[in-house]
Amino acid sequence: HAVRLAHVGTRLDPGGIGKGYALDRAAAVLRARGVDRALLNFGGQLLALGPPPHSTGWPVRVRNPRGEAPLATFDLARGSVATSADDERGLTIAGRRASHVVDPRSGLPSARNRGVTVFSPSGEIADAWSTALFVMEPGEALAAASREGLDALIVDAAGVGHANTPRFGAASGVVQMEISPSKSSETPKVASRP
């Protein structure tokens, strides 16, 4: 495959899949050497090869882009979890938060969501889809995630959480959660089920 950039000064940033790709390659090397239990953490993106001894999985806390309380907690035995959010690499312009993720439809920083977390068996897939879903409306993003067989947790611009899986708080179908920016250590409660 090849990419040709038509405009001088245009750059391609593989950051939307780079960590996931690297995690998958590192996991392949470990598996080839007989490692079947490990948790890899590349800049906050995780990939588990298998659970730690005497446990169902590695404890994972999905952070709230606007608070200290985790959005979800679960055990990760195998697979990858990736998050795209506006709180780490974003910037503040005129008092408003702007994402580092650019919406390809508008050419502007995406303002639809505060954060998107995706689970997939593949690090590269989780990484790419967390970025892709970040620029979509929450309903569109959850539909795309479900269609692709991915678990997703989306915190929209208003701070409401949306999930399509029990892993992230959905008992069945899609749920919405009220996300509080409080400093409490409590996991947010499910507020309604559409």
Describe this structure as you would to a colleague.
By secondary structure, the chain is α+β, with helices and mostly antiparallel strands. It has a single domain, classed as ApbE-like domains (T-fold). It has helices at 15-32, 123-134, 138-147, and strands spanning 38-42, 45-50, 58-62, 72-76, 79-85, 91-93, 96-98, 113-120, 151-156, 160-163, 175-178, 190-192. The strands form three sheets. An eight-stranded antiparallel β-sheet has the order 1-2-5-8-9-10-11-12. The protein has a two-stranded antiparallel sheet with strand order 3-4. Helix 1 runs antiparallel to helix 2 and helix 2 packs antiparallel against helix 3 (138-147). The longest helix is centred in the first third of the chain and has 18 residues, at 15-32. It is globular and about 50 Å long.
Report a brief summary of the structure.
The chain is built from 3 helices and 12 strands. By secondary structure, the chain is of the alpha+beta class.
Enumerate how many helices there are, as a single number: 3
The overall pLDDT average reads: 81
From the alpha carbons, calculate the radius of gyration and give it in angstroms: 17 Å
Number of domains: 1
The end-to-end distance, rounded to whole angstroms, is: 43 Å
Number of strand elements: 12
Instruction: Estimate percent helicity.
Output: 10-25%
Question: What would you call the structural class?
Answer: alpha+beta
List the defining traits of the structure above.
disordered C terminus, alpha+beta, 8-stranded antiparallel sheet, 3 helices, 194 residues, 12 strands, T-fold, 30% strand, two-stranded antiparallel ribbon
